[in-house]
Amino acid sequence: xxxxxxxxxxxxxxxxxxxxxxxxxxxxxxxxxxxxxxxxxxxxxxxxxxxxxxxxxxxxxxxxxxxxxxxxxxxxxxxxxxxxxxxxxxxxxxxxxxxxxxxxxxxxxxxxxxxxxxxxxxxxxxxxxxxxxxxxxxxxxxxxxxxxxxxxxxxxxxxxxxxxxxxxxxxxxxxxxxxxxxxxxxxxxxxxxxxxxxxxxxxxxxxxxxxxxxxxxxxxxxxxxxxxxxxxxxxxxxxxxxxxxxxxxxxxxxxxxxxxxxxxxxxxxxxxxxxxxxxxxxxxxxxxxxxxxxxxxxxxxxxxxxxxxxxxxxxxxxxxxxxxxxxxxxxxxxxxxxxxxxxxxxxxxxxxxxxxxxxxxxxxxxxxxxxxxxxxx
Length: 377
Description:
Blueprint: E1 7-8, H1 19-31, E2 36-37, H2 38-41, H3 52-57, E3 79-81, E4 84-88, E5 91-95, H4 125-133, E6 139-143, H5 152-163, E7 170-175, H6 177-180, H7 183-186, H8 189-198, E8 205-209, H9 219-230, E9 234-241, H10 249-261, E10 266-271, H11 285-297, E11 307-312, E12 315-322, E13 326-334, E14 343-347, E15 360-362, E16 371-373
Parallel strand pairs: 5-6, 6-7, 7-8, 8-9, 9-10, 10-11
Antiparallel strand pairs: 1-2, 3-4, 4-5, 11-12, 12-13, 13-14, 14-15, 15-16
Helix pairs in contact: 5-8, 10-11
């Protein structure tokens, strides 16, 4: 198989756009970079203005609305050495690439694709030293950007160094390349052999796939998944819940079902982060939770493993239930170890997009005055 998609970085290279539409979208591209490829664009139904793949990858004028911030989860606060974040006790993130196979318009790290950003590194030496000296770290997530966009030799050099550290048990590769460009796997036997070499019976390599919509699960993507499975990789899927892409229980449940049939467990469904430009892609939190639960009810137990979470600056907050007046949450992961699994009850706010939009927290210890006016942040 020799198909090699070409990358496209300007609207001028997309013949399906009229000049009027290109002129209308130019201010968006001037603010937030665009990147796609011919394979992924071929999945678009150009007769459908609401096509979900188009929504994922091509600019929208709604991105110009001033809303959100470039680093909504305050990742900078957890950067210990260049290219390494250590937010949770047992997990560290290595930002190994500043480029992706395509730029999702709702990306929460779109700042990485802007000029003068130095959060990703080519020299991982200091990061490896940090991991080696922090023996509680058992789990490394390679992210960026997309690690699978690196050459196989460069990626193997990173994985080899991590495998030489005894206390690193799990290596995860966060990647959308199987959706954006499955030929990265299909055409590179060396990549598959490298995964096979380092995904051992005792220490697996996990691929954190990013399928947002069933239309991305083509025969090419399925073949790439099968090759990685045969090489010993464990594959799970995570996706944000995005307006106009998967904010429909039928669509989201279909995604869960197909993935579970293929042996790719649904892992996290994320509330879209309040990143600059993301309002047009965001669903209000309580509505998003209802969509998520309706989707889960339409799947078997294997498809029900997904969790609906927010990656807040204080930790990964799972939404676990709601009533007419209350929403129930807990810290699935907490930056402050003393907050692990902390259960929280907040008064319903149907207009909320994020945890910080909730201003009233129910204090389970204060029976006389259960609603305390405290900041949720």
